[in-house]
Design brief:
single chain, 119 residues, 54% strand, 11 strands, mainly beta, 4-stranded antiparallel beta sheet, 0% helix, 7-stranded mixed beta sheet
Amino acid sequence: VQLVESGGGLVQPGGSLRLSCAASGFTFSSYVMSWYRQAPGKERELVAHIISTSGSTNYADSVKGRFTISRDNAKNTVYLQMNSLKPEDTAVYYCNALRESKFRRYDYWGQGTQVTVSS
């Protein structure tokens, strides 16, 4: 199983970035895909998630209206479009794949990609 994030970097306040997470080794379309982030000295927090079957999405209040999560099941990839970036968005962003059944929980993480918002 692999989740490989890309697209992070340094951007000025008000700018945009698009993160990608390429998945392999599991049935991507069966998993809820999420983006989390962790800033220095803070706990990891959920940024957004997307359910495969319905396409339903959910966002942290701090990113609503600025970030958009999407997925391409044919490419086994989930994206996070980040607009109007703020310095407080600076963090390591992690991709997560989750599937829960009655008897087992499957929970996979990527290695993270750094996003720095600074002038």
